Please model this.
Amino acid sequence: MSQPKLIADGLQFPEGPIAMPDGSVVLVEIKAGNLTRVTPDGKKQVIAHLGGGPNGAAIGPDGACYVCNDGGFEWHEHGGLMIPGGKPADYSGGRIERVDLKTGAIKVLYTECDGNPLIGPNDIVFDKEGGFWFTDHGKTDGRIQYRGGLYYARIDGSMIKEVAFPILSANGVGLSPDEKTVYVADTYPARLLAFDVVAPGVIRSDVGLGGAGRYVGAAPGHTFFDSLAVDSKGNICVATILNGGITVFAPDGGNHHVPIDDILVTNICFGGKDLKTAFITASSTGRLLSMDWPVAGLPLNFLNK
Model:
């Protein structure tokens, strides 16, 4: 496997990368509150300023970009690295937003579900039906921990539902190639969960005391999980923090680790003509990296197909 190459630096905690057909990468800068386009030569163009904490992003069936906004973090600098913290004084509330990539126009779609406010929407993936699964990571507020969950919604604002709650710190979300499984990375336990999908936005309900998710695997040592992407063979590539890198899980739980030189590796996506280029956000150092990947990424609905 090749060594990572630098595409761009100076980004304000990048996350949510989307490898676009024109070779650019659209991503969020959580600290700056921006949705930004990075061209192959490393130039940066702000598409929209959303404020709060834009986190995960995905292209929908209408060509717009849908963003999970976590409402913002406290920020700390430690040894030259940028580290997110808990709920800030200027927390603006969790929400799902639609951004027109041509005009930068922003529309807020959802701020609550069944009367409960969204706290820290984090990651998002579209199914072939045009609906989207997303996670709410929750938020820490001093000694209080707001728990996360898994949700499903439609882009016209007509439906949002809580699918699984609570999940301590739900983060990355992705679909298996046949879309019969939705995966969720739970940050603080560093565990990967799988939920059996029986219909769009519906998971298998016959669950035990442990909840709806099936345990897939975990990473050893002092490690946290962040966002994820699925490859064309069904492996789940989980961005790993503290032990920075990508932990690649087979569906049966077997895994191996690909190290990256950043303690906060937060996300991965696949692009290039064969989807064998991995784009990785090294967030504490503000970098977007690329590297050759041995397995092609899974084509995303409404983007790569």
